[in-house]
Specification:
alpha+beta, 6 helices, 20% strand
Length: 132
């Protein structure tokens, strides 16, 4: 993991353990993620992050609302993957960002405990995942 990734991970863990975010932590995250963090905070403020849990396994995936007028929803794993165009273009292809705004929103909402949690059967979760 890169030095930036290690710093970000430490900040996420601190936010999660406190259940709140300080101005200093937001400044650090903004330095690392720039405008994507600003966009992610808007998504979180608008309660646009849903965490879908499979039962009985406890496995989960995030469903994050986009900012466009169409309010598209993207499935993502906060640390590893997002189904949005930006993830493939800016992160995978160009390597210009550490993660997209949807991943940041999922990470922030999870750390703050502000996700909308939904429980589904494991077979329903598997069906969602098979459509990615």
């Amino acid at each position: 993991m890169s030095a930036s990734g290690l710093v970000a991970e430490a900040v996420w863990k601190a936010i999660e353990s406190a259940g709140s975010v300080t101005h200093e932590q937001l400044s650090l995250l903004h330095f690392l993620f720039g405008k994507n963090l600003e966009r992610a905070t808007r998504i979180v403020d608008q309660r646009g992050v849903k965490r879908i849990f499979g039962e009985p396994s406890g496995r989960s995936i995030f469903q994050v609302v986009g900012e466009s007028r169409r309010k598209e929803e993207y499935f993502c794993f906060a640390e590893h993957y997002c189904a949005c165009y930006s993830f493939f273009y800016d992160i995978v292809n160009r390597g210009q960002q550490l993660c997209c705004k949807h991943q940041l929103a999922a990470r922030l909402a999870a750390a703050l405990g502000t996700c909308i949690d939904e429980k589904v059967a494991d077979d329903q979760l598997a069906l969602l995942l098979s459509n990615l």
